[in-house]
Write a structure and sequence with these properties.
Blueprint (H helix, E strand, L loop, with lengths): L1 E6 L4 E8 L4 E8 L1 H4 L7 H23 L8 E7 L3 H18 L3 E5 H13 L5 E6 L4 E8 L2 E7 L5 H11 L6 H10 L23 H14 L4 H33 L6 E4 L6 H13 L4 E2 L3 H4 L4 H12 L17
Parallel strand pairs: 1-4, 4-5, 6-9, 9-10
Antiparallel strand pairs: 1-2, 2-3, 6-7, 7-8
Helix pairs in contact: 2-3, 4-11, 5-6, 5-7, 5-8, 6-8, 7-8, 8-9
Bound molecules: 5'-O-[(R)-(carboxyoxy)(hydroxy)phosphoryl]adenosine and zinc ion (ZN).
Length: 336
């Protein structure tokens, strides 16, 4: 089985072809980073236009690299939400058009399900597993019980983890996107700030919160101004440590809660752009090991937004005979 996947829900335009042997036959990605950089964040109208401009040629390049034609496909999958609606409409419309013209099945993929199933493409992880999804737009803990069966244990009550990194970087005068900039700055820390709050520590639920930590950081920045490079490094490291410890504590809670539902939990899986953070990875590996669970962290290109996970998710559904109607309406909001 061979499926073409399209991703256009945020600021990456992407296409990929995968098969049911878990091989990515080809993938192409255009990052709109430069388009949005002057604004310090993603501008929806700019994103939609860029998707429209780049998606067609990108799909052609992907098919060429895979060495196949549309007639060889067993289906076309596209992110149909949640996300910035202009971009989602571009991707879904393109997928439907290819499906209609070539008489192929179409599958409307929930972007979050794409993240949830990416570890099955990279590592063939068996159900049920615990997923920590930490990106710029999402921050949640899910028990992935089966295809189409997801139980949300907790989510952020304010900012997403990536959003917190981005806002903290701005406070520290670092570049956008903030996560990689904070990680880089933190590497030069000589004496990380230790007394920033660890949000939600010890709470009995599995929710996240980062706005209090951000406020504490802002106050500290105001007290210390003007910031020397050394202070920036120590604050960046302090912030990174606080976020990491907070997330690890939430994950520890979630492992216990997940095991109450599913005693045969197979793994802790991490996905989303923040999963690129080295300190977080190290800390999660320790948390998982203490709970006697393997930590599965797919390669970074599969953790951030990509089309291979969308193609794979479409494939998992299409393999079960599930398809979407060609009048499926894209959904800006679409909880799993
Ligand atoms: O999954 P993603 O590429 O896009 C979506 O938000 O859907 O995630 C992007 C987020 C940004 O907020 C970025 O700052 C964060 O992931 N990020 C990181 C790192 N690399 C990217 N956060 C912390 N440490 C990193 N190394
Ligand atoms: Zn995403």
């Amino acid at each position: 089985m061979i499926v073409l996947g399209i991703e256009s829900s945020c600021d990456e335009t992407a296409a990929a072809v995968v098969n049911d042997r878990r091989q990515v036959l080809a993938e192409e990605l255009f990052s709109q980073f430069e388009e949005h950089k002057p604004y310090g964040g993603v501008v929806p109208e700019v994103a939609a236009r860029a998707h429209l401009e780049h998606l067609g040629p990108l799909i052609e390049a992907t098919m060429r690299k895979a060495g196949i034609g549309f007639a060889d496909l067993d289906g076309i999958a596209a992110t149909a939400g949640p996300g910035l609606i202009g971009g989602v409409i571009v991707g879904v419309t393109m997928a439907k058009a290819i499906a209609a013209v070539h008489g192929k099945p179409f599958y409307a993929v929930n972007h979050l399900e794409g993240h949830a199933l990416s570890a099955r493409l990279s590592d063939d992880v068996a159900f049920p597993y615990l997923l920590l999804l930490v990106s710029g737009g999402h921050c949640q803990l899910l028990v992935v019980e089966d295809i189409g069966r997801y139980h949300r244990l907790g989510a952020t009550i304010d900012d997403a983890a990536g959003e917190a990194f981005d806002k903290a970087a701005k406070l520290l005068g670092l570049s956008y996107p903030g996560g990689p900039a904070i990680q880089r700055a933190a590497e030069g820390a000589t004496d990380p700030v230790r007394d920033l709050p660890r949000p939600m520590l010890g709470r009995p639920d599995c929710n996240f919160s980062f706005s209090g930590l951000k406020t504490a950081l802002r106050q500290r920045v105001e007290e210390l101004r003007p910031l020397s490079p050394d202070m920036v490094a120590n604050l960046a490291a302090g912030f990174e440590i606080a976020v990491t410890e907070s997330i690890a504590d939430r994950v520890k809670r979630a492992i216990a809660a997940a095991r109450e539902r599913m005693p045969n939990l197979t793994a802790l899986v991490v996905a989303g752009g923040v999963a690129a953070n080295q300190r977080l990875r190290t800390c999660l590996a320790e948390t998982a090991a203490k709970a006697n669970l393997p930590l599965v962290a797919p390669p970074i290109r599969l953790c951030t937004d990509n089309a291979a996970m969308i193609a794979w998710t479409g494939l998992e559904h299409l393999k079960r005979g599930e398809t979407s109607a060609l009048d499926f309406a894209p959904r800006p909001r679409w909880p799993l």
